[in-house]
Amino acid sequence: MATPFQPKNNSQAAGFSQKQLIERIQERFENLSDERTGSNISYQMSDAALSAFSVFFMQNPSFLAQQKLVEKSHGKSNLQTLFGTHKIPCDNQIRNLLDAVPPEEIYPLFNFIFKGLQETGYLKPFASIENSLLVAMDGVEYFSSQKIHCDKCSTQTLKNGETHYNHKAITPVIVSPKQSQVIPLAPEFILPQDGHEKQDCELAASTRWMAREQSLFTDQSITILGDDLYSHQPFCEQILAKNWHFILVCKPDSHQTLYEWLEDFERIGKISAYTQKKWNGRQHITTEYRYMNHVPLRNSDDALMVNWCEIKETNEKGKVIYRNSFVTDFEITDDNIVEITAAGRARWKIENENNNTLKTKGYSFKHNFGHGQQYLSSVLATLIILAFLVHTILEYFDACYRLLREYLSSRKMFFDDIRALTRYLCFDSWTNLLEFMLEQLEIPIPN
Questions:
Q1: What is the fold of 105-357?
Q2: pTM here?
Q3: pLDDT at residue 50 in the model
């Protein structure tokens, strides 16, 4: 299948319509590995994967059951016409089939979309300091239990002696201080690694993610953002070895040597300072910047020399309303200190615009849709993130989708309407569904 990402004009690309994205997802799911043998195969692997994806995409746990009723009354279902399934498997059949599928088999869809975003110029507004893309990294828990578990669970012994089982993932996203949206990238799961006695951890998983995705960014400058956990020399060296950059939170408690050096430089007046005052629409805010280049990240002869900066905001009453500090490999000057700290602060978008959205905005990321014994939990989590990514893309590229999202005042209203319509009616295509909604709302259908 030829890549469909060829822009028609400056504002729209042909390859990110709802129909074309679903077609690409169908193609990938048709090639998922299938461990079954023999000819007695009732459901295709793509039926299971598309059915699971449809639940997350429609934000409707009852979608499959509803479509069985639609099929009885209409002779076909929206699961077939909108998502391209052949038959509707039951929940247990979906879980059994997907349990054997490694989530890595879904990752090419994320990379396909990323390349398409590059080709259409969508990512240009996300470019930040020195024209690099900011990739925020963070770990998030998406399953926990004291009873249900598998060999791939991470464990924690509680104070009462019981074992807490959980699944976590690294969920990298492209962020920008100037953009409200984030662009999810393929995740990396924190789980036991072959040949390792210690439990897997966030830093190790992040290192694997960077090694895995390095080829994706061969023609794109990347700056990694992370919290204080990431601002340690081995991880920073991994970033620099890939010719990437970093802006990482750096707290005094975990970087004693660095802050001792800063205290010495403070005493002799070597730390540079820069102040801005601005009106935020409610009050005047004073922002103080301090920075120092070439300080050691740790106490060793081979310490990595990094550049440190701090931002502090105070209101008219002198109350500190924000304060943070970062280390980076970018040389800091009066001319770029504002841009560097703004990039560092954008890390919070992975919490607010990504993880929180996945947990609370209809995607039910922490709901246990199925745990399995092999890959089921991580595959379902990957499909949820993919659904969020596709919604993000459609809001920008699909004119009908965007109009409906703008007209319907909330995300909840938008999905409530789609759930209601697809419960009682069967639509021949996504275009048919979206145009039907626009017509009923008396909104002109775009060309």
A1: Transposase Inhibitor Protein From Tn5; Chain A, domain 1 (3.90.350)
A2: 0.93
A3: 97
